[in-house]
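Bumping with the actual sequence this time:
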Amino acid sequence: MREIVTLQLGQRANYLATHFWNTQACRNSAGQGPSGEDTYTPRTLIYDLKGGFGSLRKWDGLYDQQGVREDFKKLWYVPKEARIIRNGSVVKQQDAPIPRSEYQEALNEGLEQNCKLTSKMVIYWSDFTRVFYHPRSIIQINDYELGSSILPFEQWSSGEALFDTLDKEHDLHDRDFRPWAEECDQMQAIQTFGSADDAWGGFASRYLESLRDEYGKTAVWFWGLEEGAGQGQKTKQLQRTVNVAQSLQTISSLASMYIPLAVPLHLPPYVNIDEASQWHASGLLSMAVESMTLPSRQKPGSTRRGLLGDIEAALNVNGNQRVAEFQCSIIDPSRQQPNTDGQYEDTMDCRVRTTDSHDLAHEDEIEKTNSMLDMRFSTEGPLQTALSIQQREQANHVFSKVESIRGLPSPGREMREEDEAVSRKRRRLAFLPIVEHFPEILDASMSSTKNAAIHASLSTSSQMSKRMKGLQSTVARMVHVSDREALSNGLGEIAEAYKEGWDSASDEESN
């Protein structure tokens, strides 16, 4: 086995991860229920603030509170009632438990077919989960409350301070992470989902720093979730920008691969999401994330297998390019047909057609368009927003690219390619299964099927240098003078890593 241990840090990360686990369902860690029966639960650690778990309980479903070890209870237990002495008398205050959603009630009774899940029904990520979790996976942080306006969990430094406090008191590695790591036969990677634009970014940086001391040679991936550009009040946007800069500067030096992740500001016509619904937004992101990481979860010996360490080695060609761009398109299944030899070829742009798509006449144009997937999961600045996809690509030099193409009727087929101009690895994989009650975010022509064809791509390119320089210029005016130099220099070093060995002049001369 080459296991992956997952960390989920914060509400948005837990929305994404819930979709992820719902899709996988059985790619989990074996355990035993209270009666000794075999159970399968995700190999993950779920951190969230007080009130963030909704109706989910630490001892739920497969596990009840009877017989659970005392150390498990300490991770979750909060007195249901508080006693306050006021004017010499004792006043009881008690929070009402959050009731299960209608969908969860139907799921527990085996009647989910009779309950249609909607955005209004999903208030917490636990409202649409379809899997059970081991009690030690669920870790509530009681120092902050979800959605609090009095003590919001927004400042990057607040996350650092919170981790330091908890780690000093409990040693989070020994208490939370080590038990999962010791159950692995051979852990291939640590995968982290976390917000990069709020206090969870600071919490993640401290957590990964503590793990790096123990697992120095293990692949560590960080999916850094960000709010889309232009969302929220101006002051909030500026604060999130500073938080993202701090996350990039710090976490990219600790993780072996950092992938910024945000819902694109402009979506293709075949995607329709409710912008106010985290259930919708995280559903779209999960389709791409699950597809891109699928090779790492293939069975040993499979020709389609690719460990996360293998993927990052292919992307980080210069040794210091640890931040990757993530792109995706939904493929029209009707265009994924074998030729007369039974082989699947990339001889056409097989994305779902948009209003400005057109047929291509030349192979070089086809290759260029295939490389320009129509959803870019990185936050776009004002300049990038004004540019078309074609303009952005023309000003971009790609160092390396790894692609996963899901859409083969037979899961046994695979194709790998090496391009002389770009270091590229491409794997063809089976369709992405659409689980029951997945949000209806695709065009009607796509959502009628139980499978989706996905083309996902991770790449390292000169575009990252431009983003780092943009962040460097922006945050220089916003952070305290004591932090300005270190943050600016760190972003500058990342930017330089994506210019090394290439500049626009030399590239034009070679053509």
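The tokens above came from a reply further down the thread. The radius of gyration is 23 Å.
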